[in-house]
Design brief:
heterodimer; A: eleven-stranded antiparallel sheet; disordered N terminus; B: 2 domains; 13% strand; rod-shaped
């Protein structure tokens, strides 16, 4: 702590340092657009590299106390993790099938409880995926890492999930706090142990009215995005403000309305692109019926059989999917990340000035499971 | 430090940088010198006296913030990082490290990914088109009949849940129905017991479940005009049982959904693509199965000396001409007109005795109570 000459602006006691996001939006757009095109060409296999590229971009432009973070994961690791996860999941799926045949014999749709088993597996995958991402995060030449057990986490998630189900979601804030506490207490930056000090009660106080009004929002469509954006902003702020690493304390000042614009822009793009798709379908159908007008009296049924029309529709569909992909990544990943990290204040950063390195990188198996089971979690 | 930078590369070649040794998060202001190797020297480095040196050929670029060249060294601790902001030093280091960018995914790397993906796609397509049908055909005889019966039990519970307990059991109708099934069964080499039932639903359909269950919907019975029509349909279902088609289709569908799902992974909206491509391949498979069941039915009816054409007429009465309405490659059954034509071609004048008497036929027709439709 004696060598502070290179951070000249900090007289003790140190004020919080803001985090910053310096990423260029155009650069991210090109990255996402190129990635979507490559995903199409490789029938989806490029996803491992695209996800890696996106994380590398976001991490390396996130700057805390003058130093940018670094993501050291690689696409190949994700691919290998995915293949390993498949090797494990295939026998499980088979066993699941055989067990469900037995269960169905006793009672119709009795295999439903087996889905619970998959839910547990999904929670396990969420924990291990987070561990992978965290151990690939490096700041100032020291990695973050995680211990703890994915299954212990899955148990907690299951019990809290059951409780949340029984109380119609009322205990959701406490569930979030407890699960995050487990994750963060098993997270480390070098030798600094993490902790989570956010309280369920705090989140409840901020969000209870959203929970109460959610049936209204579901019925009144234009309200739903506002509700969701409001909830997400409050949740982000609560989550970030609870994070600790040793003496380092995060705080977020994210305004509650910060995400309104982003969600509406996504909806706007979605409508615009759908309308464009509708117009495209209409003009394709018109064109084809004009061209084949020669063999007069062609029934409208014949249109559905036309191969050129189907090909054109297929191309339109793919274009729609790809552009929606880019829109989602641009607004919901990059822009949310930029807004959230710009809202971040770091207190007590001096505690991170000389932290000894510890911890090893974890395997990408967890991400593979999450991909194979199609679960998303953070 | 700026004045150091300005004069840096004049002669000996050195300049300022920030160094993280990968063992602690301590940020060190250091000087780098371009000698035989890259020499990093500054206060508090360990070992204390001698500078850290990195071979130029081991230096690789890693992600840094904007305007910063951040490098690592293969022979140093894996997370040791050197950060250079000074443009002149960046230029000098870049020119000396020939393999600086080797970490990055370049055009060739991407071409490799694309190439391997195409290879994987082709292999999956080949497996779906050739290997899985073969596996399904080979595996089906290996599955014990007891297991198939269990599958049938499980499916039956679901059928009961879906259609309720609306099994028709008018006594006279049931007797006629059993007689019809028995007559059909006796002229086949089907070695599993058949459990037929009529369900009271207006949908004109019939299906067979693994383990010998045959369901006839009352809707089909209502549309039928003579016993031969129903006999043909039942013979067709017995054909499915004989060929164990449900089991085969189960293996086939399971395999293809799994592989196609694997192929497309999580490209958003891919479920539609999966659905479309799956229905393409599986429907061609099921068309084959239907064709075979038709063959079975035609042969069975001929053996009984009854008209195979009757079933085709019943189907045609229900569906009408199909060719205009749907894409042939998407249909799970062959077009009705084609099936009718095949059955008409095989038609011969009746030589066997009628399968049911008039009284039995009308009892069967009203097995679900007085007929309205």
């Amino acid at each position: 702590m004696n060598q502070v000459s290179f951070v000249p602006h900090h007289p003790p006691p140190l004020p919080p340092v803001p985090a910053a996001f310096s990423g260029n939006r155009g650069e991210f757009f090109r990255l996402a657009a190129r990635g979507a095109a490559l995903e199409l060409v490789t029938v989806g296999f490029y996803r491992f590299w695209l996800v890696t590229d996106i994380r590398r971009h976001l991490w390396s432009h996130t700057i805390v106390d003058g130093d940018a973070a670094e993501y050291t994961g690689r696409g190949k690791e994700l691919l290998i993790g995915f293949l390993f996860a498949l090797a494990i999941l295939v026998p499980i799926y088979l066993a699941y099938f055989l067990i469900s045949v037995e269960a169905e014999r006793l009672k119709g749709f009795a295999s439903f409880p087996l889905i619970v088993g998959f839910y547990a597996f999904g929670q396990f995958a969420i924990y291990r995926a987070r561990r992978y991402r965290l151990t690939r995060t490096v700041w100032r030449g020291v990695r973050f890492w995680m211990d703890g057990s994915g299954w212990a986490y899955a148990w907690r998630a299951m019990l809290w999930g059951l409780l949340a189900l029984l109380t119609l979601g009322l205990v959701f804030p406490w569930r979030e706090a407890a699960l995050e506490r487990y994750k963060m207490q098993h997270s480390y930056y070098g030798e600094l142990q993490g902790n989570f000090e956010g309280r369920g009660w705090e989140l409840f106080k901020r969000c209870w009215w959203l929970w109460l009004l959610s049936p209204v929002a579901i019925m009144l469509f234009p309200l739903a995005p506002f509700f969701y954006a409001e909830f997400k902003a409050r949740e982000w702020r609560w989550w970030l403000s609870g994070i600790r690493f040793g003496g380092v304390r995060l705080e977020s000042t994210l305004p509650r309305t910060a995400l309104y614009g982003l969600y509406w822009k996504v909806i706007g793009w979605f409508m615009l692109l759908s309308t464009a798709m509708g117009a495209y379908v209409g003009s394709c159908a018109f064109l084809v019926s004009k061209m084949s007008g020669a063999d007069a009296g062609a029934a409208p049924d014949a249109l559905a059989k036309s191969i050129p029309l189907l090909v054109m529709l297929g191309i339109g569909y793919l274009a729609l999917i790809l552009s929606l992909n880019v829109v989602m990544r641009l607004y919901l990943q990059r822009d949310v990340w930029a807004k959230v990290s710009a809202s971040l204040q770091v207190h007590g950063i001096e505690a991170a000035a000389d932290v000894a390195a510890r911890g090893d990188p974890a395997s990408a198996l967890g991400e593979g499971f999450a991909d194979g089971l199609d679960v998303a979690g953070f | 430090m700026d004045n150091v930078a300005d004069t840096a590369l004049a002669g000996s070649g050195s300049g300022p940088a920030i160094y993280f040794d990968g063992l602690s998060s301590r940020r060190r202001a250091v000087a780098v010198a371009f000698k035989e190797q890259l020499e990093i020297s500054g206060e508090g480095l360990s070992p204390v006296s001698s500078p850290v040196s990195w071979a130029y050929s081991d230096i690789r670029r890693v992600d840094g913030g904007p305007g910063i060249l951040r490098v690592a060294c293969l022979s140093a601790p894996s997370l040791a990082r050197l950060e250079i902001r000074d443009a002149a030093v960046v230029a000098e280091l870049t020119s000396r490290c020939a393999r600086l960018g080797e970490n990055r995914l370049d055009g060739r790397g991407i071409a490799k990914i694309v190439g391997w993906s195409l290879a994987a796609t082709i292999s999956i397509v080949v497996v779906v088109l050739f290997a899985i049908p073969l596996a399904a055909d080979r595996l089906t005889p290996l599955v014990p009949e007891a297991f198939e019966a269990r599958l049938g039990d499980a499916a039956e519970v679901q059928v009961k849940t879906l259609f309720g307990e609306r099994v028709c059991n008018g006594a006279a109708g049931q007797a006629a129905f059993s007689k019809l099934i028995d007559t059909l069964r006796k002229s086949t080499d089907l070695d599993i017991p058949v459990q037929p039932s009529v369900l009271a639903t207006p949908i004109p359909n019939a299906f067979a479940l693994p383990g010998g269950r045959v369901y006839l919907f009352n809707g089909l019975l209502a549309k039928a005009e003579n016993p031969d029509e129903i006999a043909g349909v039942l013979a067709h279902e017995l054909g499915h049982l004989k060929h164990r088609d449900s089991l085969r289709e189960l293996i086939y569908n399971g395999g293809t959904s799994f592989l196609i799902g694997l192929l497309f992974g999580d490209v958003t909206g891919s479920s539609a693509v999966i659905f479309a491509s799956r229905s393409l391949v599986t429907s061609s498979y099921s068309r084959d199965a239907e064709q075979n069941a038709d063959t079975f039915a035609i042969e069975l009816m001929q053996r009984l000396g009854r008209s195979p054409k009757a079933m085709g007429e019943l189907l045609f009465r229900i569906t009408g001409k199909e060719g205009n309405r749907s894409l042939s490659i998407l249909a799970s059954h062959p077009f009705t007109e084609d099936r009718l034509k095949r059955m008409s071609d095989a038609d011969r004048p009746a030589s066997g005795s009628p399968l049911l008497t008039d009284a039995e036929w009308s009892a069967l027709k009203s097995i679900c109570g007085p007929n309205k439709s």
